[in-house]
Design brief:
The chain is built from two helices and nine strands. The chain is mainly β and 243 residues long. The protein folds into two domains: 28 residues; 212 residues, Beta Barrel (Porin).
Length: 243
């Protein structure tokens, strides 16, 4: 009876070892990977609108621009099982810049109701994301392998903007002793840079095209939201090398 029990456990152990060896053999070439990616970054931020628009352009000057820019990054990951993976990546987009001609109320508006001052406002917005994502990869046949990822991105955002103000108001006589003066306003502009750190929820969908056992091209779409004051979409493609 004892011998029968030992034999049974040996058989069970043999099959468990064989299963582990088959998994290791099947994934020996894809256990770890590194990749480099390029993407288009679509930025859509929250904003406040005033109707009719105010002459004072402080709100406009502080608003960051929406639009599309380019970016890239690098990642390293590992398969924790045949269908689950863990990835660490750093991706950054180029600064999205915008230059506008804005107006500001002039203090001589009391004397001349239509008096306004105009200046060039420069704004920009840039995001850097350090992401930790868990991936789920359904078992698929052939060279096309879909996948889904979700996790957290540690975001660094850098925003620059221009703020204008009237620094002084002087009255210069046209002719000494005539009593007629010309109001002169000095306009002062300052460029500010604001750096913020926060967390953003990140989800992604991909379709890895396996060109060889060690190399794949991965079209993907990533979305980041929460703590950004808007949504950032990053459609792109990555080149992935596996071991």
């Amino acid at each position: 009876m004892m011998l029968h029990s030992r034999t049974r456990w040996r058989v069970v152990g043999f099959f468990m070892l064989a299963a582990v060896m088959r998994i290791d053999e099947a994934h020996a070439q894809t256990r770890v990977y590194v990749s480099g990616d390029v993407f288009a970054e679509v930025i859509q931020l929250s904003r406040t609108s005033v109707t009719p628009p105010l002459d004072d352009s402080t709100a406009d000057a502080l608003s960051a621009p929406d639009g599309v820019t380019l970016g890239g990054g690098g990642r390293v990951g590992a398969w924790l099982s045949p269908v689950w993976s863990l990835e660490l990546g750093v991706d950054t987009g180029r600064a999205l810049r915008e230059e506008r001609s804005l107006s500001i109320r002039s203090p001589i508006g009391i004397l001349i109701p239509q008096a306004t001052l105009r200046y060039q406002s420069r704004t920009s917005q840039q995001y850097l994301a350090t992401s930790v994502l868990v991936g789920y990869h359904p078992v698929a046949r052939g060279r096309l392998h879909p996948g889904f990822r979700g996790g957290i991105s540690f975001m660094r955002s850098e925003r620059t903007f221009t703020v204008a103000s009237t620094s002084s108001l002087t009255f210069t006589p046209t002719v000494p002793g005539s009593g007629v003066v010309i109001p002169t306003v000095t306009l002062l502009t300052n460029d500010y840079t604001v750096v913020n750190y926060g967390l953003a929820a990140t989800v992604a969908a991909e379709a890895a095209i396996e060109l060889s056992r060690r190399f794949a091209v991965v079209p993907e779409m990533r979305a980041l939201a929460g703590g950004l004051g808007g949504i950032v979409l990053r459609p792109g493609v990555a080149a992935q090398i596996r071991w």
